């Protein structure tokens, strides 16, 4: 027995002596801390928390952007783009920090406070009363500082928004800045905004520093007083040393929870202001609301009547409103031919109203003024009592001096604004009863200063019909090899619906393409109706050869064949095909802001015209669309207008150059928001004291030169 037990008893101390020293080194060295950090890197909780924060922030930005993109034009007239961009980034970051971390922090703080107080009372009730007496002082001293810190945080966001606005405005108008030698002025403005940000940040850090020092001072004071009281009771035998030290740890836990609660209070006060601004934008209802009726032409196809209840109104005064010449023109053509009609339309922007609702005597006397037509225009109105009709296959020119309200008419047609009085009818129905998507898809608009997005030229022409899936580089990059063969891939893309899987991983067809495909025959007739039959056949053969060449490009693999065909034909009619083909990548050349290829103003306008043609709308509006074109291209665009007229399109031409209005079927002359003259251009020129003749006389010396 003794022989068996001796080795066993000797092994235990021997192993202990061998492992004691390495274990001691492990505990006292930094290896354990490093190993813990390595294990924390793979902490699933931190990973899920970070993923949740990112998801919340992304969803909030998506929601805000969906709300902003659907707002009416009056909203953007009163808000800076830089400020909205700052709201989209900074406010969402502040809110996600509160939403994602606020609940966890609040729960931890409440548990610390409740647990600390409970254990303090359970340990020693007398010392608990003394320890709790310092809480009101702690809250009073640090609560105001936390609120002040949150207030400064809100001002910091405002300063960042101001800096973004200044920088965005200066960089977007860099040509005007450099042309007027205003670089130093813009730098001064931006530096002032950054100085304001720095000062506010310094005040915030100072407030937080005072807050931290105050908290530490109160905590150390309470800790010292309770430690003295506890040691006194330990000496007297009223309390053990272990209970005294335990009570001290419970007190620290309580004040740690209070510190966290005050931090949450400051963050909540700051985020509350950000949330108000965020939800004001998210919950804002646009002034321009969607209608619920079907498109007028769809109702006509179904055999339904399209008579508007207001159609019978103002029949007695129709001759006075529209003029004798236009009344004869409408009666000879028939009301069924009317496509777009303005009825007693008046518009006044909110900014024109007096601030504070006060008027001076001189302003009251100018509240109404008479124009030469004898109508009354209230002060502040951009348009007053405007009435006219435009039918199929007509070109209506709108002329007048700058600020007369010509471009405002085009904006009303698109329902960018709603008139305060009157109605606008499309095929006999009030446009306010139509869905915005249906209305705007039937009105093509070519603005005076066209805007091209940072994408390919083909995507700019087919904008709204073809939507590439965005990437980090804001550009759809196609794979080196299509997953389908060239012929099979195009055939499958033509036969499938508008699902994301039909066109690969990088692009998809917009659902509106289905509507476009159903009207392909009519659109094809529009885009191929110029010339004789034999020339059309030859032209179609050439078009097919060019189209096959374009389709053979790698970038064209994701495009629907029919849509790309319409894109090319629209560019040809707009006389943009020639210069597009000369670009490095043709129709797939990147253009827009920051693109390597810069386009002239005339080239941009021709692309904008092609964009309007590609949609095949019912009404075309050209707002100074030929102002940047040379003489030859302008003549070609006028030929395009004739082609559109032959295809029964309604065309509005807004122009300062009166030479472009000579081919119009009807002419409106605007002055101070009122129609002062109407009729055929040659007839108005012969009228005595004609405003149109005066404008033409002012331009005639320039043309002769």
From TrEMBL:
What sections of the protein cross the membrane?
Answer: 16-35
Q: Which GO terms describe its molecular function?
A: ABC-type transporter activity; ATP binding; ATP hydrolysis activity
Q: Which CDD domains match?
A: ABC_6TM_exporters
Q: Where in the cell is it found?
A: Membrane
Quote the SMART domains the UniProt record gives: AAA (SM00382)
Q: Where is this region: Disordered?
A: 284-336, 352-378, 480-499, 516-547
Query: PANTHER family, from UniProt?
Result: ATP-BINDING CASSETTE SUB-FAMILY B, ATP-BINDING CASSETTE SUB-FAMILY B MEMBER 6
Chief site of localization: membrane
Source gene?
ABC.B5
InterPro entries in the cross-refs: AAA+_ATPase (IPR003593), ABC1_TM_dom (IPR011527), ABC1_TM_sf (IPR036640), ABC_transporter-like_ATP-bd (IPR003439), ABC_transporter-like_CS (IPR017871), P-loop_NTPase (IPR027417), Type_1_exporter (IPR039421)
**Pfam families attached here?**
ABC_membrane, ABC_tran
Instruction: State what protein this is by name.
Output: ATP-binding cassette sub-family B member 5
Domain ABC transporter stretches? 365-697
Assigned protein family: Belongs to the ABC transporter superfamily. ABCB family. Heavy Metal importer (TC 3.A.1.210) subfamily.
* Membrane protein topology class: Multi-pass membrane protein
């Amino acid at each position: 027995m003794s022989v068996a037990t001796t080795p066993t008893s000797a092994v235990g101390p021997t192993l202990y002596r061998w492992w004691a020293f390495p274990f001691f080194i492990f505990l006292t060295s930094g290896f354990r801390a490093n190993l813990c950090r390595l294990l924390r890197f793979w902490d699933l909780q931190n990973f899920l928390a970070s993923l949740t924060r990112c998801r919340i922030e992304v969803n909030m930005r998506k929601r805000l952007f969906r709300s902003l993109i659907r707002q009416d034009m009056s909203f953007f007239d009163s808000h800076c783009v830089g400020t909205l961009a700052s709201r989209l980034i900074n406010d969402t970051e502040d809110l996600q920090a509160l939403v994602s971390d606020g609940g966890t922090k609040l729960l931890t703080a409440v548990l610390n406070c409740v647990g600390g107080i409970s254990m303090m009372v359970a340990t020693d009730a007398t010392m608990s009363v003394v320890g709790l007496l310092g809480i009101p002082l702690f809250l009073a001293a640090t609560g105001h500082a936390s609120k002040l810190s949150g207030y400064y945080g809100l001002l910091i966001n405002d300063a960042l928004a101001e800096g973004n606005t200044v920088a965005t405005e200066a960089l977007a108008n860099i040509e005007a800045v450099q042309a007027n030698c205003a670089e130093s002025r813009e730098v001064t403005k931006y530096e002032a905004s950054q100085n304001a940000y720095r000062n506010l940040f310094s005040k915030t850090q100072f407030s937080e520093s005072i807050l931290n020092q105050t908290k530490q001072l109160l905590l150390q004071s309470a800790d010292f007083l309770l430690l003295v009281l506890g040691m006194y009771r330990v000496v007297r035998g009223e309390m053990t040393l272990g209970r005294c030290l335990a009570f001290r740890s419970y007190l620290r836990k309580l004040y740690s929870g209070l510190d966290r609660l005050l931090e949450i209070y400051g963050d909540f006060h700051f985020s509350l202001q950000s949330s108000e601004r965020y939800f004001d934008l998210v919950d804002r209802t646009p002034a321009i609301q969607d209608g619920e009726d079907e498109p007028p032409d769809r109702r006509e196809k179904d055999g339904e009547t399209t008579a508007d209840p207001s159609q019978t109104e103002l029949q007695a005064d129709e001759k006075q409103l529209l003029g004798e010449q236009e009344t004869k023109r409408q009666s000879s053509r028939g009301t069924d031919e009317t496509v777009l009609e303005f009825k007693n339309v008046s518009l006044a922007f909110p900014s024109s109203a007096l601030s504070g609702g006060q008027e001076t005597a001189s302003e009251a006397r100018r509240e109404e003024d008479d124009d030469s037509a004898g109508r009354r225009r209230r002060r502040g109105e951009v348009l007053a009592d405007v009435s006219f009709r435009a039918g199929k296959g007509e070109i209506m020119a709108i002329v007048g001096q700058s600020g007369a309200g010509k471009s405002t008419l085009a904006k009303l047609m698109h329902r960018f604004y709603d008139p305060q009085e009157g109605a606008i009818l499309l095929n006999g129905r009030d446009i306010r009863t139509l869905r915005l998507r249906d209305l705007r898809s039937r009105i093509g608009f070519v603005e005076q200063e066209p805007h091209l997005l940072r994408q390919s030229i083909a995507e700019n022409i087919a904008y709204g019909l073809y939507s590439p899936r965005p990437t980090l580089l804001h550009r759809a990059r196609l794979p080196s090899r299509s997953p389908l063969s060239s012929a099979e891939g195009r055939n499958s893309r033509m036969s499938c619906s508008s699902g994301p899987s039909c066109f690969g991983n990088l692009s998809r067809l917009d659902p509106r393409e289905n509507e476009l495909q159903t009207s392909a025959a009519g659109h094809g007739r529009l885009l191929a109706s110029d010339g004789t039959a034999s020339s059309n056949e030859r032209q179609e053969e050439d078009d097919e050869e060019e189209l096959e060449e374009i389709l053979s490009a790698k970038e064209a693999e994701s495009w629907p064949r029919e849509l790309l065909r319409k894109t090319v034909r629209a560019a040809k009619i707009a006389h943009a095909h020639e210069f597009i083909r000369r670009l490095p990548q043709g129709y797939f050349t990147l253009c827009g802001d920051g693109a390597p290829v810069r386009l002239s103003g005339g080239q941009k306008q021709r692309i904008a015209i092609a964009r309007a043609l590609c949609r095949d709308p019912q009404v075309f509006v050209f707002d100074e669309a030929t102002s940047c074109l040379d003489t030859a291209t302008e003549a070609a665009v006028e030929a395009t207008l004739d082609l559109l007229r032959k295809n029964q399109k309604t065309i509005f031409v807004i122009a300062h150059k009166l030479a472009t209005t000579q081919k119009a079927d009807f002419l409106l002359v605007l002055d101070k928001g009122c129609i002062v003259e109407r009729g055929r251009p040659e007839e108005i020129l012969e009228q005595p004291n004609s405003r149109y003749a005066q404008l033409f006389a002012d331009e005639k010396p320039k043309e002769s030169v």
